[in-house]
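re: ur question from the group chat, yeah i did fold both. here u go
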Amino acid sequence: MDIQPTTHPPSSADDIVIRAARLTDCEGIAALGNMPGYRWGTLRLPHQTPEATRKWLEGINPASNVSLVVERDGQIIGSGGFERHQGRRSHVAYLGMGLHDDFHGRGIGSRLLRELIMIADDWLNLRRIELTVYVDNVAAIALYKRNGFEIEGTHRDFAFRGGAFADAYAMARIKP
């Protein structure tokens, strides 16, 4: 039997490179987490330190987690990854991603998400990818839907953000 590799869009295109996160990226990743728009779509608190980010990067288990960054001209402008569950949920991973406030609407998030899906499908044989997204994050919801994610439910009062409780959708993609 002749097995042909599946072709995917390259991980770098135009002026960006998508690559594995390194410990030396802690400054850039922390700077992303401190951007108002980036933070608004996450569970991060204001004033993330590079030291806390480095500690988080050091704790990543490469056997079950994937952590990528998007780089442009030496600057980290995006990050994303997933954490694989264990045991009877080892076919599932939880995904998170975000972009620099100034780089939305350029297709960069699409490229990052496609790279993560390719790793999940073609390298880790993950069957299900889960995520949560705030219900007011219309652009992210549209991105996830375009890539096969479906809304499975609503988490009411999911998180306290900006002085009020916010709802979030539970979304998932089942490998076709």
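okk and heres the other one u asked abt
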Amino acid sequence: MSLTLVALIILSVLTAGMIFTFIRLLRGPSLPDRIVALDLLVTLLIGVIATYAILNDQSAFLDVAIILALVSFLGTVAFAYYIERRV
């Protein structure tokens, strides 16, 4: 298998996961479910960025993925703090 074919398979699986996660984000029965779905959506987006960076040999996109992961982590902590205070 060539790298391009493997990358296309990975991107299609990640895209399918993003579609299902986005549906959960819209329909989520509660706020914590939506927060987890948003966090998963960002994680899948990081996977897409990393796959694109490997496919096109662009290491700068890996830096973007790392920064996005850090911002996502801080956002998840902030949402968890908000939910804890709300209860």
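fwiw on the second one: The chain has one domain: 3-86. The first helix runs from residue 3 to 27. idk if thats what u expected
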